[in-house]
What does this fold into?
Amino acid sequence: MAHVVHSYADLPATAHACADRVAHLLREMIGARGVAHIGLSGGNTPKSMYAVLAGLPDIDWANVHFWWGDERCVPQSDKDSNERMARESLLSRIRFNEAHVHSVPTTLPPAECAAAYEAALRRVCEIDLQSRMPIIDILLLGIGDDGHTLSLFPRSPTLNESVKAVANTIAPPTSPVKDRVTFTFPAARSARYRIFLAAGPDKKPVVQGCLANPPADQPSAKVGEAEWFLDAAAAP
Ligand code: 6PG
It folds into this structure.
Protein backbone atom coordinates (compact mmCIF):
# COMPACT_ATOMS: atom_id res chain seq x y z
CA MET A 1 0.00 0.00 0.00
CA ALA A 2 1.82 3.10 -1.18
CA HIS A 3 1.09 6.28 0.70
CA VAL A 4 2.40 9.67 -0.40
CA VAL A 5 3.20 11.92 2.55
CA HIS A 6 3.63 15.71 2.44
CA SER A 7 4.37 17.73 5.57
CA TYR A 8 4.54 21.48 6.09
CA ALA A 9 5.47 23.87 8.89
CA ASP A 10 1.95 24.66 10.03
CA LEU A 11 -1.74 24.26 9.19
CA PRO A 12 -1.96 27.30 6.88
CA ALA A 13 0.88 25.98 4.73
CA THR A 14 -0.61 22.47 4.81
CA ALA A 15 -4.05 23.79 3.88
CA HIS A 16 -2.60 25.70 0.91
CA ALA A 17 -0.70 22.67 -0.37
CA CYS A 18 -3.70 20.40 0.05
CA ALA A 19 -6.01 22.89 -1.66
CA ASP A 20 -3.59 23.16 -4.59
CA ARG A 21 -3.56 19.36 -4.95
CA VAL A 22 -7.38 19.13 -4.77
CA ALA A 23 -7.69 21.91 -7.35
CA HIS A 24 -5.27 20.12 -9.66
CA LEU A 25 -7.24 16.87 -9.39
CA LEU A 26 -10.56 18.65 -9.95
CA ARG A 27 -9.20 20.19 -13.15
CA GLU A 28 -7.80 16.81 -14.21
CA MET A 29 -11.08 14.95 -13.58
CA ILE A 30 -13.18 17.60 -15.35
CA GLY A 31 -10.71 17.61 -18.24
CA ALA A 32 -10.96 13.84 -18.55
CA ARG A 33 -14.70 13.27 -18.05
CA GLY A 34 -16.33 16.71 -18.05
CA VAL A 35 -17.29 16.32 -14.41
CA ALA A 36 -15.70 15.75 -11.00
CA HIS A 37 -17.18 14.12 -7.92
CA ILE A 38 -15.65 15.18 -4.61
CA GLY A 39 -16.42 13.67 -1.22
CA LEU A 40 -15.98 16.37 1.42
CA SER A 41 -14.79 15.60 4.92
CA GLY A 42 -16.17 17.12 8.08
CA GLY A 43 -14.85 18.25 11.42
CA ASN A 44 -12.71 21.36 11.88
CA THR A 45 -9.43 20.77 10.08
CA PRO A 46 -10.77 21.10 6.50
CA LYS A 47 -12.26 24.59 7.09
CA SER A 48 -9.07 26.48 6.28
CA MET A 49 -8.33 24.24 3.30
CA TYR A 50 -11.84 24.80 1.89
CA ALA A 51 -11.40 28.57 2.25
CA VAL A 52 -8.13 28.43 0.28
CA LEU A 53 -9.64 26.09 -2.33
CA ALA A 54 -12.53 28.51 -2.90
CA GLY A 55 -10.06 31.19 -3.93
CA LEU A 56 -8.07 29.14 -6.44
CA PRO A 57 -8.42 29.91 -10.16
CA ASP A 58 -9.51 27.88 -13.16
CA ILE A 59 -11.84 25.43 -11.42
CA ASP A 60 -15.06 24.80 -13.35
CA TRP A 61 -17.16 24.59 -10.19
CA ALA A 62 -20.43 24.23 -12.14
CA ASN A 63 -19.23 20.75 -13.15
CA VAL A 64 -18.24 19.62 -9.67
CA HIS A 65 -20.59 17.31 -7.76
CA PHE A 66 -20.35 17.68 -4.00
CA TRP A 67 -20.85 14.70 -1.70
CA TRP A 68 -20.01 14.06 1.95
CA GLY A 69 -17.91 11.11 3.07
CA ASP A 70 -19.87 11.19 6.30
CA GLU A 71 -22.46 13.31 7.99
CA ARG A 72 -23.95 13.76 11.39
CA CYS A 73 -27.69 13.02 11.52
CA VAL A 74 -28.67 16.59 12.27
CA PRO A 75 -30.40 19.30 10.19
CA GLN A 76 -28.13 21.10 7.72
CA SER A 77 -28.66 24.25 9.80
CA ASP A 78 -27.17 22.60 12.90
CA LYS A 79 -23.77 23.83 14.14
CA ASP A 80 -22.51 20.22 13.98
CA SER A 81 -23.59 19.63 10.37
CA ASN A 82 -20.71 18.85 8.00
CA GLU A 83 -22.78 20.31 5.17
CA ARG A 84 -23.25 23.56 7.05
CA MET A 85 -19.47 23.77 7.58
CA ALA A 86 -18.80 23.14 3.89
CA ARG A 87 -21.38 25.69 2.78
CA GLU A 88 -19.89 28.32 5.08
CA SER A 89 -16.23 27.66 4.25
CA LEU A 90 -16.41 26.62 0.58
CA LEU A 91 -19.73 26.74 -1.25
CA SER A 92 -20.61 30.27 -0.14
CA ARG A 93 -17.45 31.47 -1.89
CA ILE A 94 -17.76 29.76 -5.30
CA ARG A 95 -20.19 29.69 -8.24
CA PHE A 96 -21.48 26.14 -7.89
CA ASN A 97 -24.57 24.35 -9.26
CA GLU A 98 -26.99 23.66 -6.40
CA ALA A 99 -28.29 20.65 -8.34
CA HIS A 100 -24.83 19.15 -7.91
CA VAL A 101 -24.84 19.45 -4.12
CA HIS A 102 -25.94 16.04 -2.90
CA SER A 103 -27.03 16.58 0.68
CA VAL A 104 -27.23 13.63 3.02
CA PRO A 105 -31.00 13.42 3.71
CA THR A 106 -30.67 13.73 7.47
CA THR A 107 -34.38 14.48 7.94
CA LEU A 108 -34.90 10.72 7.41
CA PRO A 109 -34.27 8.18 10.18
CA PRO A 110 -30.57 7.08 10.05
CA ALA A 111 -31.04 3.75 8.27
CA GLU A 112 -33.37 5.25 5.67
CA CYS A 113 -31.02 8.22 5.34
CA ALA A 114 -28.08 5.93 4.56
CA ALA A 115 -30.08 3.93 2.02
CA ALA A 116 -31.37 7.04 0.26
CA TYR A 117 -27.89 8.57 0.13
CA GLU A 118 -26.44 5.38 -1.31
CA ALA A 119 -29.22 5.31 -3.92
CA ALA A 120 -28.29 8.86 -4.96
CA LEU A 121 -24.61 7.91 -5.25
CA ARG A 122 -25.49 4.89 -7.39
CA ARG A 123 -27.80 6.99 -9.55
CA VAL A 124 -25.30 9.75 -10.24
CA CYS A 125 -21.81 8.24 -10.05
CA GLU A 126 -20.05 5.67 -12.19
CA ILE A 127 -20.08 2.17 -10.66
CA ASP A 128 -16.81 0.29 -10.22
CA LEU A 129 -17.27 -2.96 -12.17
CA GLN A 130 -15.08 -4.90 -9.75
CA SER A 131 -16.13 -3.56 -6.36
CA ARG A 132 -19.66 -2.62 -7.51
CA MET A 133 -19.23 0.59 -5.54
CA PRO A 134 -20.06 4.13 -6.71
CA ILE A 135 -16.84 5.92 -7.69
CA ILE A 136 -15.97 9.23 -6.07
CA ASP A 137 -13.08 10.94 -7.84
CA ILE A 138 -11.56 12.68 -4.81
CA LEU A 139 -12.39 11.54 -1.28
CA LEU A 140 -11.22 13.97 1.38
CA LEU A 141 -10.51 12.39 4.74
CA GLY A 142 -9.78 13.54 8.25
CA ILE A 143 -8.51 11.43 11.12
CA GLY A 144 -9.61 11.40 14.73
CA ASP A 145 -7.16 10.95 17.60
CA ASP A 146 -8.80 7.56 18.18
CA GLY A 147 -7.85 6.51 14.65
CA HIS A 148 -11.29 6.91 13.10
CA THR A 149 -11.88 8.36 9.67
CA LEU A 150 -15.16 9.26 8.02
CA SER A 151 -17.52 7.98 10.70
CA LEU A 152 -15.78 4.62 10.83
CA PHE A 153 -14.90 4.27 14.49
CA PRO A 154 -12.72 1.62 16.19
CA ARG A 155 -14.59 -1.56 17.20
CA SER A 156 -17.74 -0.48 15.31
CA PRO A 157 -19.70 -3.27 13.56
CA THR A 158 -19.88 -0.90 10.57
CA LEU A 159 -16.21 -1.74 9.93
CA ASN A 160 -17.38 -5.17 8.76
CA GLU A 161 -19.81 -3.83 6.13
CA SER A 162 -18.78 -5.29 2.78
CA VAL A 163 -21.88 -4.82 0.57
CA LYS A 164 -23.33 -1.38 1.29
CA ALA A 165 -21.54 1.76 0.12
CA VAL A 166 -23.16 3.84 2.86
CA ALA A 167 -24.20 2.80 6.35
CA ASN A 168 -25.69 4.39 9.43
CA THR A 169 -23.57 4.05 12.51
CA ILE A 170 -23.16 5.23 16.09
CA ALA A 171 -20.31 7.47 17.17
CA PRO A 172 -18.64 7.09 20.59
CA PRO A 173 -20.17 9.03 23.50
CA THR A 174 -17.34 11.58 23.31
CA SER A 175 -18.37 12.61 19.78
CA PRO A 176 -20.51 15.71 19.14
CA VAL A 177 -23.34 13.75 17.47
CA LYS A 178 -24.21 10.09 18.11
CA ASP A 179 -26.10 9.13 14.93
CA ARG A 180 -24.01 9.22 11.80
CA VAL A 181 -24.10 8.20 8.12
CA THR A 182 -20.82 7.19 6.56
CA PHE A 183 -19.11 5.76 3.52
CA THR A 184 -18.08 2.19 4.26
CA PHE A 185 -14.63 0.75 3.61
CA PRO A 186 -15.59 -0.66 0.16
CA ALA A 187 -16.86 2.75 -0.95
CA ALA A 188 -13.81 4.60 0.42
CA ARG A 189 -11.48 2.13 -1.26
CA SER A 190 -13.24 2.67 -4.61
CA ALA A 191 -12.41 6.38 -4.74
CA ARG A 192 -9.96 7.37 -7.43
CA TYR A 193 -7.95 9.50 -5.01
CA ARG A 194 -7.96 9.60 -1.20
CA ILE A 195 -6.53 12.65 0.49
CA PHE A 196 -5.97 12.90 4.24
CA LEU A 197 -5.57 16.29 5.86
CA ALA A 198 -4.43 16.28 9.48
CA ALA A 199 -2.81 18.75 11.83
CA GLY A 200 -1.76 18.97 15.45
CA PRO A 201 0.17 16.77 17.88
CA ASP A 202 -2.90 14.76 18.92
CA LYS A 203 -3.02 13.25 15.45
CA LYS A 204 0.65 12.21 15.31
CA PRO A 205 0.25 8.77 16.97
CA VAL A 206 -2.62 7.69 14.71
CA VAL A 207 -0.96 9.12 11.61
CA GLN A 208 2.16 7.16 12.56
CA GLY A 209 -0.06 4.10 13.01
CA CYS A 210 -1.43 4.45 9.49
CA LEU A 211 1.93 5.02 7.86
CA ALA A 212 4.14 2.65 9.83
CA ASN A 213 2.62 -0.50 11.28
CA PRO A 214 -1.18 -0.15 11.30
CA PRO A 215 -2.80 -1.46 14.51
CA ALA A 216 -5.42 -4.12 13.83
CA ASP A 217 -8.33 -1.89 14.73
CA GLN A 218 -7.45 1.50 13.27
CA PRO A 219 -10.09 2.39 10.65
CA SER A 220 -8.00 5.19 9.12
CA ALA A 221 -5.38 2.57 8.19
CA LYS A 222 -7.89 0.54 6.19
CA VAL A 223 -9.31 2.88 3.55
CA GLY A 224 -6.52 2.23 1.06
CA GLU A 225 -3.43 4.10 -0.12
CA ALA A 226 -3.73 7.83 0.17
CA GLU A 227 -2.00 11.15 -0.13
CA TRP A 228 -1.35 12.74 3.26
CA PHE A 229 -1.11 16.46 3.91
CA LEU A 230 0.23 16.99 7.43
CA ASP A 231 1.59 19.82 9.49
CA ALA A 232 4.89 19.25 11.33
CA ALA A 233 3.09 18.46 14.59
CA ALA A 234 1.11 15.59 13.06
CA ALA A 235 3.83 14.26 10.76
CA PRO A 236 5.76 11.14 11.80
C1 6PG B 1 -16.62 14.07 11.23
C2 6PG B 1 -15.47 13.81 10.30
C3 6PG B 1 -14.39 13.08 11.01
C4 6PG B 1 -13.25 14.06 11.10
C5 6PG B 1 -12.30 13.69 12.20
C6 6PG B 1 -11.27 14.79 12.41
O1 6PG B 1 -17.76 14.10 10.77
O2 6PG B 1 -16.32 14.29 12.41
O3 6PG B 1 -15.73 13.41 9.09
O4 6PG B 1 -13.97 11.89 10.42
O5 6PG B 1 -12.58 14.14 9.86
O6 6PG B 1 -13.07 13.53 13.38
O7 6PG B 1 -11.94 15.95 12.82
P1 6PG B 1 -11.12 17.31 13.13
O8 6PG B 1 -10.60 17.79 11.82
O9 6PG B 1 -12.16 18.23 13.72
O10 6PG B 1 -10.02 16.93 14.09
About this structure: Residues 35 and 63 are 5 Å apart (CA to CA). The chain has six helices and nine strands. The chain has a mean pLDDT of 97.
